[in-house]
Amino acid sequence: MKRPIVCYPAIDWHYLFHRPQQLMLRLAEKGHPVHVRNPQQQSGAEPELVAPNLWVYRDLDRLPSEVSEHAIYFIYFPAYAQWIEPGPGKFLVYDCIDDDPVFDGCEAMMVERADLILCVSRSLFAKHQANHPRVMLLSNGVDLDHYRFGGGPVPDEIAELKKGAEAIIGFTGAFYRGWVDMELIYHVAYLRPRWKIVIIGESYQWDFSTAPKNLIYLGARPYSQLPAYVRHFDIGWIPFLDNRIAQGADPVKLYEYLAAGIPVVSRGLPFAEGLRPPLVYTYRSPQECIAVIQRALADSKGNRMVFRMRRQAFAAGHTWEAKVEQLLTGLTKYTTLEN
Fold this sequence. Notes:
This protein has 13 helices and 16 strands. The protein is α/β, with parallel strands linked by helices and 339 residues long. It folds into 2 domains: 5-141 and 319-331, Rossmann fold; 144-316, Rossmann fold. The radius of gyration is 21 Å and the shape is elongated. The model has no long low-confidence stretch (mean pLDDT 95).
């Protein structure tokens, strides 16, 4: 029998579909019973079966002791380390996907208690390799077929926005003040009024009421519908700030944009190193950003199908299925996967 897994994500299971869900769903498909502790707890709530072999707990007290004492734990927010006492039957994995300053007060305990640290980027790998004997690089991935073929027909709102637009410059994901260069976005919007800049995702601390008319915030959309939007972008934009968080990032949207076959325009950050046109076009200044968007648009007009296939071929080497196989291979070096 496959060993159970207990996951402590940083945000609620149903709120934002990203790396924890992608990994946990596939581990459940591999036969591991997966038990997810929802951050928002509700005493007395029954576990929710959200997929075959995967339960979400709004009351972790409902987790059977035979599971909790012999599970592989995946922890996404380092402060949770204080709630999980190491034990002879437990194996603690810290899946480090951000280098956020808010972790500074609690990450040392997590690192001390972890049996294995997964790192989403090379910079995080280098950081933790200096302090822990078992560190593994596990970058993000993509559900390739979902972004190539899923999501349904072009959404009406995107079809409407395309009317009269020179290009659709799109962003998907959490629109968070610690990540996003809003000054740059406004700069581009004002200088290129015929470009429609479309933002899809949860907005944190941003007010779009004074935005230029060609900056359109659509709000969040279900993961099941996102490919229908992304495939009709002309550009997938990653307008991150150049700061500590972004330096340690490996954006899922990078792989999703490429799986959809569209060019990526990004600040020249570590996650974009080694990636070149027609996959990724990088910039280091607002003026250069506009120039590389124009170049990406021109390249796509001349070689649309050939470049689309090259982007999707790259994404095919970074599927979540491949990441889970890499993860399981790494785990077998340090612990057993069977009960």
